[in-house]
Design a protein that fits this description.
The structure is a homodimer. By secondary structure, the first copy, chain A, is mainly alpha-helical. The first copy, chain A, is built from 22 helices and one strand. The first copy, chain A, is globular, with a radius of gyration of 25 Å. In chain A, 69% of the residues are buried. Strand 1 of chain A pairs antiparallel with strand 1 of chain B, so a sheet runs across the interface.
Chain lengths: 715, 715
C-alpha cells in the first residue's frame, strides 16, 4: 500500500498547478493608473527587498545548521532540513508575490465592481493558501518517495550504529529510527524559517508602524497612508511581511508539526510493538499486533491523505466563493466558503478513516480537534471585535482616559484565556480518552486539516487592506475607498477567528510534538518504551530536575517576549533617525530603512535553538520534557493575552473613530491611540512569535533526543 | 523530647510581650498638634472601619467553612482552621493599630530629630513583624500542646475510620493522619484570611487611589494629600490596609505554609517508614529506620525551633537598629539590621541542625533557601529602583510618550522574570539533591525563617509614607516633610527587596505545599506511598488528565488577575460617584465610601476555594497536582511581571518628578502619570494576590486529598 503515497503526490501537484491558474487570473486584470502601479511597485519592491535580504542572511544560518545535522546524523537528515527551510521560505515568497501582485488590481477592480474586487482578493489569498498547503505536503511526500527505504518497515530500526563519530564521542547510540529523524528535520527547517519570518517580520512591521506614526506626527503633519511619508510605504510593506509572510509560515509550520508528530509517534510504536503495553497502543489505533506491511503503510500515510483531501476541500470552497453570485452579501460568501471547506474536510476524513484499517475513534479525535480550533478562533473574535460587548465596554473605559483603557485592555486579554484553556483541556482529555497517545496528535491534525482555507482567508485581509492604502495614496474617489474598506472589514472577522485559531492549533500541535519528543527520548537507547515524565518521583534525579525545568520553561516565553518588544522599540528609533536624515531624498531612502535588524532576529532565533539543547544536555532528557511543557503552558496563556489585548485595543480605537465617544480628534480618540500603540507590538509581534517558539524547541528536542543524558551529570 | 515544644512557646510569649513594650515606647511620644491628631484620627478610623467591616463579613464565611470541616473531618480540624483564621486576622488588626498609631508620632518627632523619627517608625514596624511571627508560631505551638495526642507517634495513624458520615457516603477512608489535617487546616485558615486581606485591601487601596486622582483632577484641582479631598484620606487608609495588613497576612501565610509543609511531609514519611524506599527518605533526613520516640519529636519540632530562633534574631536586630547611634546613615542602619537578622538566623539554624539528630545537609537547604529569597528580592530592586539602569532607561522611553513608556515597562517586567526563574530552578535542584523531597520544604523554611524582620521593615515603609502625608496635610514646614521623605526613601529600597522576596518565597513555599499535597493524596488510601505525578504516562487515565489540568491551572492566574483588575475599576467608579454625591458633606462621607465591594472579594476568594475541589472531584487527585503546578508556574511569572512592571513605572514617574526630562508638569511627566496609573493595580493588587492564590489552593488540596478519586469517573 506504499502506492497510497501517490494520492498526496498528485493532489499536491494539482494544488501547485492551481496557484498558477489563480495567478493567470490575476494577471488578466489591470493594476490601474500609473500612480497606482507606482505605489504597487514601491510596496512590491520593499517587500521583495526585505524578503531577499532576509533569505540571504538566513541562508547562511540554515547552511551552518545543515552541516551540523549532517555531521551529527545522516546526510538524509540534513537534506530534509534544507528542504523544509527552502519550502517554507518559498511559501513566504509566493505569498508575498501574490499579495503585492493582487493589491492594486483589487483597487482597480473596486472602481467597477465590488464582487470582482472581492474575487481578485480571494484569488490572491488562494495562491498563498494553496502554496502553503501544497508545498508543505509536497515536501513530505517527496521525503517519502526519495527516502522510501528509511520508512520501509523491514529495515526501520536497523541503521542504528551507522554514525560512528557522534556515538563514539558521546558514548551513546544515535536515535535509531532514521525515518523519524528525517521528518523531524524537515519540520525543524520549516519551523526555523517560520520563526525567523515571524520575528523578523513582526519587528519590522511594528517598528515601521511606530516610525510612521512618530515621523508623521513629529516631522510633518501627513495623513495616514500618505505616500510622501516614507515610513508609510514601509508600513504597507510591513503588513505584507508580517501578516502574509509571517502568518503563512506560521500555519505551514503548525501544519507540518501536526503531521510529523503523528508519524514520529507511529514509527516508535511500530518499532516497539513487541512490547506488550506498546502493542496495546497499536490496538487502540485499530492495528492488531500482527500488523501487516499493507496495514503499516496505510497507517503511516493516513495523515498525509487526510491533509491532501483537506486541500481538495479548500479548492472546492475557493471555487464556490469565486463563482458565487451573491454579490450582496460577501461576508456570508466568505463565511460559507470557510465553513464549506471545514465540513468537506471532515467528510473526507470520515471516509478515509472508514476505509482505512484504523479504529474509527480516530475520526472523532480529528473532529474534536477541528471543533476546538474553531471554538478558540470564535472566542478570539468575541473578545476583539467591536460587534460584541467586551470591545464596546473597552471603548467606554478608554473614553475615561488612556490608563484606564489600557488597564481594561489588559484585563480583557487576561480574561480571554479562560475559554481557550477550558477548550484545550477538554479536547486533551477527550482525544486521549478516545485514542490514547495518538489522540492528541490526531486532534492537532484535525485542527490543521483545512489550513489551506485558513491561510487563503488570512491573506485576503492584508490584500484588501493594502488595496485601501493604494486607493488613498492614488487619490481615487471616496466611493472606491468605501468599497475597499468594506472588503477589508469583511476580512477582519475571519482574520480574528484565524488568529485565535493559529494560537489554539499551535498549542495543540506543540503538545503533540512534545509527546513525539518523549517517544524519541524514551526510545533512544536502542529500544522503545512508553514514555513517562514524572514531575514528582520516587526517583529524585527525575523529580528535582523536571520541576526545576518546568519553572525555567515557564519563564522563557516572558523573556522572549521582552526581547521582541525591546527590539521593536529599538528598531523604530533607528528607522526614525534614518528617515529624518534622508527625508528629502525620497524615494531612494526606501532601500536604506527597509532593513530590519537582522542581528536581533538571529540572536532571538538562536536562543530558541540553543535553549532546548542547553537544558537537555545540562539537566537531562526528562527535564527537557518538563522545560517544553512549562514553556508551552506559559506561551499559550501569554500569546492569547497579548493577541486579544492588542486586538481589542485596536478595535476600540476603530470603534471610537467610527464616531463613538466623540469620534476622531476627541480626547477619547487620543486615549485610544495610546492604547492601540501599546497593544500593537503585543498583537503583531509577541503573540504570533510565541506560537512558534515551543514548536520549534520541541522539534529540536526530537532531533537531539538521543544525545541527551537521562539525568544531570552531578546527580 | 516533646518538651522541646516549650522553647517555641516561651519565645512566642516573649515576642508578643515585646510588642507591648514597643507599643509603650510609641505611647510615650506625642502625636503632635491638634491638626495632626485629627488627621491621624481620620486615617485610623478609616482603617478600623475597613478592618472591622471586613472581619465581620469574613467571620460569616469562616464560620460556614468551619462547620463544613467539622462535618467532614474532626472537630479538632475545624478548630485549628478557626485558630489560623483568627490569628491571621489579629495580626492584621495589630499591624493596622501600630501603623496608624505610629504615623503622626513619626511626623511629630521629625520636627526635632531624624533618628528619633526613624526609631518610632521602626518600633511601629516591629510591632507588626513580631506580632506576625509570634502569632503564627504561637498558634502552631498551641496546636501541638492542645492536640498532643494527635501528634503522638504511637497513635499517629490509628483514628482512620473515626468519621463515619463522609467515609460512608464517599466509600473512601478519610485521610488517616489527623495531625496532618490539623496543621493544614490551621494553614488554610491563615491563608484564607490573607487572601481576603490582599484582595479586599488591594482592590480598596487602588480604587481609592484612582478615585483620589480622578476626583482631585476632575472636580477641584487639589494637590496630593490635601485633606479636603476625601478620597485622599481613603488613599492613606488604603496604604495601611494594603501594605501593612495585606503584606503582613501574606508573609504570615507563607511562613505557616512553609512550616506545615515540612511537618506534613514528615508525618507521612514517618507513618510509612516500614516501606523500604520511604525509609530511605528518612535516612536522607538523618533518621535511621529504627527512629526512636525521642528522635521523632526532635525532627517534628525542628522547624518550629528554627523559626523561633529567627524571632530571637529579629529582636536582636531591631534592638540594634533602635540603639544604633549612626544617625547620619539610617539607610545603612536599616540594611545592616536586616542583614544582621538574616545572618543570626542562619547561625542559629546551624546550631539547631548540628545539635539535632538530623543530617547536616538540611542546613545547606535552609541556607540555599535564604539566599535564593534574598537574591530574588535584590533582582526586584534592581529592576524597579531608579538607582539602576532599567528604570532610568524606562524614564527616557516614557519621555517619548506614554505608549512607548508602558510598552517599555511591560518589556522590563517580562525580562525581570529571567533571574528569579533561574534562581528558583537552581535552588530546587540543589535542595532536592541535598535532602531529597525534604529539601524543597526546608528551602522554603529557610527563606521564611527571618520573616519577622522582613515584615517589620516592610511596615516601616507605609508608616514613613503616612507620616509624610500627615506633615503635608497639617501644613508643617518644608523641613519636616523633607525628613519624612528621606525616611520614606530609606524604606523604599528594602520594601522593593521585600516585595520580590515575598514572591520568591511564595513560589517556594507553594511548591513545598504541593509536595505535601502529593504525600497526602498518595497516602490517603490507608497506607503511605511515595508520591508520583506523571505528566505523560503508560497509564492513560493519568497522562491525559494531568496534562489537561496543567493547562487549566496555567490559565487560572490570568483569569484571577483579570477579575481583580476589573474589580478595581468598578470600585473606583462607584467611589467617585459617591464622593461627587456627598462632596460637600465632608467629613461624614468618609464612612460612606470606605466600603469596598465585599461581594466581589468573597466571589473572587470563593473561586480559590472551589476550583481545587472542582478539579479534584472531576479529574482526580493526580490531575489536581497538575492543576496546582500549572497554576504555580503561571502565577510566579505573572506575579513577577506585574510587580516589577508596576514598580518600575511608579519609580520612572518619581524619577521624572525629581527633575529629569522636564520634571513635574512636563509632557514626560504627563506620560509617566499615565504609565503609573496602568502599573498601579498590577503592582499593588494583582501581583500580591497572586502570591497567595496557589498556596491557598494547595492547602485546600491537602485537606481534601483523601476525598478525591484517583481518576475521572468516565475513564
Amino acid at each position: 500500500m506504499f502506492e497510497l503515497i501517490f494520492i498526496p503526490a498528485v493532489i499536491c501537484a494539482f494544488a501547485l498547478l492551481s496557484t498558477l491558474l489563480f495567478n493567470r487570473y490575476l494577471a488578466k486584470h489591470d493594476a490601474g493608473s500609473e500612480k497606482m502601479k507606482e505605489l504597487q511597485k514601491h510596496i512590491r519592491e520593499g517587500a521583495w527587498t526585505f524578503m531577499f535580504e532576509e533569505a540571504r542572511v538566513f541562508a547562511v544560518v540554515t547552511g551552518i545548521i545543515a552541516v551540523i545535522l549532517w555531521l551529527l546524523f545522516y546526510w538524509e537528515v540534513a537534506s530534509a532540513f534544507l528542504l523544509g527551510a527552502f519550502l517554507s521560505m518559498s511559501a513566504g515568497f509566493i505569498g508575498m508575490h501574490s499579495a503585492t501582485f493582487a493589491n492594486a488590481r483589487v483597487t482597480n477592480a473596486a472602481q467597477h465592481s465590488e464582487k470582482k474586487a472581492f474575487n481578485i482578493a480571494i484569488a490572491g489569498g488562494a495562491i498563498m493558501g494553496l502554496a502553503v498547503a501544497g508545498l508543505a505536503l509536497g515536501g513530505l511526500t517527496l521525503l517519502f518517495l526519495i527516502f522510501r527505504e528509511a520508512f520501509n518497515p523491514a529495515t526501520l530500526a536497523i541503521e542504528s550504529k551507522a554514525v560512528p563519530l557522534v556515538s563514539s564521542i558521546l558514548g551513546r547510540d544515535i536515535n535509531f529510527i532514521k525515518a523519524a529523524l528525517i521528518v523531524s528535520a524537515y519540520s525543524m527547517g520549516a519551523s526555523l524559517v517560520a520563526l525567523f519570518d515571524r520575528v523578523g517580520g513582526g519587528i519590522f512591521t511594528k517598528a515601521a508602524d511606530m516610525a510612521a506614526d512618530l515621523v508623521g506626527k513629529a516631522e510633518v503633519h501627513l495623513p495616514e497612508d500618505d505616500p510622501r511619508n516614507p515610513a508609510s510605504i514601509a508600513d504597507n510593506v510591513g503588513d505584507n511581511v508580517g501578516d502574509v509572510g509571517g502568518l503563512g509560515a506560521d500555519l505551514l509550520e503548525s501544519f507540518v508539526g501536526s503531521i510529523i508528530s503523528v508519524i514520529v509517534i507511529y514509527l516508535y510504536v511500530y518499532v516497539g510493538r513487541s512490547n506488550a503495553s506498546i502493542s496495546a497502543l497499536l490496538e487502540q489505533l485499530g492495528a492488531p499486533l500482527g500488523l501487516s506491511i499493507q496495514q503499516y503503510w496505510w497507517l503511516l500515510i493516513v495523515p498525509l491523505l487526510i491533509i491532501s483531501f483537506g486541500i481538495i476541500a479548500t479548492l472546492i470552497a475557493l471555487f464556490y466563493m469565486v463563482v458565487s453570485k451573491r454579490a450582496k452579501n460577501l461576508q456570508a460568501t466568505l463565511m460559507n466558503g470557510t465553513r464549506l471547506s471545514a465540513i468537506l474536510t471532515m467528510v473526507f476524513a470520515f471516509i478515509i478513516i472508514y476505509l482505512s484499517p484504523m479504529n474509527f475513534s480516530v475520526f472523532w479525535c480529528i473532529l474534536i480537534g477541528a471543533f476546538a480550533g474553531i471554538a478558540i478562533g470564535y472566542i478570539a473574535e468575541y473578545y476583539t471585535s467591536s460587534a460584541y460587548r467586551p470591545v464596546k465596554k473597552l471603548a467606554e473605559e478608554t473614553s475615561a482616559g488612556a490608563a484606564i483603557g489600557i488597564t481594561g485592555g489588559m484585563a480583557l486579554g487576561m480574561l480571554s484565556t479562560f475559554i481557550p484553556g477550558l477548550v484545550v483541556a477538554i479536547a486533551i482529555v477527550a482525544t486521549y480518552w478516545l485514542a490514547g497517545l495518538f489522540g492528541i496528535a490526531y486532534g492537532a491534525l484535525g485542527m490543521l486539516s483545512f489550513v489551506g482555507m485558513t491561510v487563503s482567508v488570512d491573506t485576503y485581509g492584508p490584500i484588501a487592506d493594502n488595496a485601501g492604502g493604494i486607493a488613498q495614496g492614488a487619490g481615487l474617489p471616496e466611493k472606491v475607498r468605501k468599497i475597499t474598506d468594506r472588503l477589508d472589514a469583511i476580512g477582519n472577522t475571519t482574520a480574528a477567528v484565524g488568529k485565535g485559531f493559529a494560537i489554539g492549533s499551535a498549542a495543540f500541535s506543540a503538545l503533540a510534538l512534545i509527546v513525539a519528543y518523549m517517544w524519541s527520548a524514551a526510545g533512544s537507547a536502542g529500544e522503545v518504551t512508553i514514555p513517562t515524565i514524572e514531575m514528582l518521583s520516587a526517583n529524585p534525579k527525575i523529580g528535582a530536575t523536571v520541576i526545576a525545568a518546568l519553572f525555567l520553561g515557564a519563564m522563557i516565553p516572558y523573556v522572549f517576549s521582552a526581547l521582541l518588544i525591546q527590539a521593536v522599540s529599538d528598531t523604530a528609533k533607528k528607522m526614525v533617525e534614518e528617515i529624518k536624515r534622508q527625508f528629502r531624498k525620497f524615494p531612494d531612502i526606501l532601500k536604506g530603512k527597509r532593513k530590519p535588524d537582522y542581528n536581533k532576529c538571529i540572536a532571538i532565533t538562536s536562543i530558541t535553538i540553543i535553549l532546548p539543547l542547553l537544558v537537555g544536555f545540562a539537566l537531562g532528557k526528562y527535564a527537557l520534557a518538563g522545560f517544553l511543557i512549562g514553556a508551552l503552558l506559559s506561551c499559550m496563556q501569554l500569546a492569547i493575552y497579548c493577541a486579544n489585548t492588542g486586538g481589542a485595543l485596536d478595535n476600540a480605537k476603530k470603534y471610537i473613530e467610527d464616531g463613538h465617544y466623540g469620534g476622531k480628534g476627541s480626547e477619547a480618540h487620543v486615549a485610544s491611540v495610546i492604547g492601540d500603540t501599546v497593544g500593537d507590538p503585543l498583537k503583531d509581534t509577541v503573540g504570533p512569535s510565541l506560537d512558534i517558539l515551543v514548536k520549534l524547541m520541541s522539534v529540536i528536542a526530537i532531533l537531539f533526543a538521543s544525545l541527551f543524558p537521562a539525568y544531570p551529570i552531578f546527580f
